[in-house]
Amino acid sequence: GGDESGDDAEVPAEGGVVDAEGQPASAVDAAEARVVKLAQFQARALSHALKFPSAERISYSTCSIHALENELVIKEVLPEAVKLGYTLEAAVPAWHRRGMEGVLAPGAAHALLRADQFEDDMEGFFVAIFVRPPPPGARKAAKAAAAAAA
């Protein structure tokens, strides 16, 4: 723990700065920087996938407990997804734990699935499913292409 100033870092006897869990501050900073970089990449990859013209359903999942890689990635790409005709579909509707409230609108948060490593007796996990109707004529064109290939 820290002092009453609310600072979570303390100086141990050997002189290095550690966080509240006793990890060296430099390791914590490196881990946080890694999560930020992963989240930035994940948002770019998801945004790219949403632009595929024939995509109707895109699943985004992580084995992460970090909102930065989960709800905040969805929050970042959701406006673009909506412009492209996507909505969020409830992932495994019977599952009890949904997305974190307060990051997204309640309806969007409810569509997200989250597993907590401590409370659900499993690894942390997150799922978001984007769906949109097929573009006009897409199914007919796909059937025609399949028939021509047969």
The CATH class designation is Alpha Beta
Helix content: 25-40%
Q: Looking at this structure, what is the CATH superfamily? A: Vaccinia Virus protein VP39
CATH architecture: 3-Layer(aba) Sandwich
Number of helices: 4
Spans of at least 5 consecutive residues whose pLDDT stays below 50 are: 1-14
Q: Taking all residues together, what is the mean pLDDT? A: 85
Termini Cα gap: 68 Å
Q: Note the beta-strand portion.
A: 5-15%
* CATH topology (fold) name: Rossmann fold
Order of helices and strands: HEHEHEEH
Largest sheet: 4 strands, antiparallel
**Structural class category:** alpha+beta
Return Rg in Å.
Answer: 21 Å
- List the domain count as a whole number: 1
Question: Overall 3D geometry?
Answer: elongated
Structure summary, number of beta strands: 4
Organism: Mantoniella antarctica
Protein name: SAM-dependent MTase RsmB/NOP-type domain-containing protein
Family: Belongs to the class I-like SAM-binding methyltransferase superfamily. RsmB/NOP family.
GO cellular component, one term: nucleolus
